[in-house]
Design goal:
By secondary structure, the protein is α/β, with parallel strands linked by helices. It has one domain (about 15-260): Ribonuclease Z/Hydroxyacylglutathione hydrolase-like (Metallo-beta-lactamase, Chain A, 4-Layer Sandwich), CATH 3.60.15.10. Helices cover about 25% and strands about 25% of the residues. It contains 9 helices and 14 strands. Strands 6-5-4-3-2-1-14 form a 7-stranded mixed β-sheet. Strands 7-8-9-10-11-12-13 form a 7-stranded mixed β-sheet. A hairpin with a 2-residue loop joins strand 7 and strand 8 (about 145-150). Helix 8 (about 215-225) packs across helix 9.
């Protein structure tokens, strides 16, 4: 299924990912919520994309992919949609599995938490378009092929394999131990890096298991399932426990490990 739009198709070798900051102070190390920006045209999750830059910068993001509907991944979605809207009708397409899009419409754009921009979009220049994703069926957006893959979380959640035909990265999303995503990683040409969560310290293994997140020990077992020789970027570290989690991650001495920093642009 191909999705095309007014954004110019990007060059085959250019792949840049920025973790967006979510704190006014020390934004590089305080990732309270999740948003990733790819080549300034595609966003993964909307935790803070609605607070990023100026409205004109947000307007350039024409494709937004949601991993799931938890608040730290959709918190700024309504703000983003409002900021990015123009009367020209050249709106953003929001992609997600059906369960995620249903949650967004029922619990955000419901005329209680926020106006129903989905309904508004039927009778005026649209605020957004919703595009349901099918499991492991790729869509084309702004020169990239993006493939959703189910992972292991408390609610229906997908990670994304993102490829420009020459290079690829994977966003693991919120997940406990999972397998299918890493099986596909072994068959992804040009895979450069994986962004994978490391939420809780090892002392909170019980909480991590019950909430379907990872500790550094669990993180290392996930890395063992991935292809060798790729960069592994640890993200979604709970800010209160960040120093402890980083110490435990570094103690693993995993090749290719990097601690994710917000506002840093990763180029592959």
């Amino acid at each position: 299924m191909a999705v095309t739009g007014p954004v110019a198709r990007l060059g085959g070798e250019r792949l840049k990912v920025k973790l967006l900051g979510s704190s006014l102070e020390d934004s590089a190390t305080r990732q309270y919520v999740s948003s990733y920006l790819i080549n300034d045209a595609i966003a993964i999750d909307a935790g803070c994309v609605g607070f990023y830059g100026r409205p004109r910068q947000q307007e350039s993001i024409k494709h937004l992919f949601l991993t799931h509907a938890h608040i730290d991944h959709v918190a700024s979605l309504p703000i983003f949609i409002e900021n990015a809207w123009t009367p020209a009708g050249d709106c953003c397409t929001v992609y997600g599995i059906p369960e995620t899009l249903d949650a967004v419409q029922n619990h955000i754009f419901n005329n209680v938490i926020w106006p129903d921009f989905v309904a508004f979009s039927r009778n005026m220049p649209p605020f957004l378009r919703l595009c349901p994703l099918q499991d492991e069926v790729s869509v084309d957006a702004a020169g990239f092929k993006i493939t959703p893959v189910r992972v292991n979380h408390l609610i229906p959640t997908v990670g994304f394999v993102v490829s420009n035909g020459g290079k690829a990265v994977i966003f693991g999303a919120d997940s406990g131990p999972t397998n299918r995503l890493w099986e596909l990683a072994h068959n992804t040409p040009g895979l450069q890096a994986v962004f994978v969560e490391a939420c809780f310290p090892n002392t909170m293994k019980g909480l991590a298991e019950s909430s379907r997140h990872l500790t550094p020990e669990m993180f290392s077992r996930e890395v063992a399932k991935m292809p060798a020789g790729i960069k592994v970027i640890a993200v979604h570290i709970k800010v209160r426990y960040r120093d402890q989690v980083i110490r435990e991650l570094k103690a693993l001495r995993l090749p290719g490990l990097e601690i994710g920093e917000c506002e840093k642009e990763y180029e592959f």
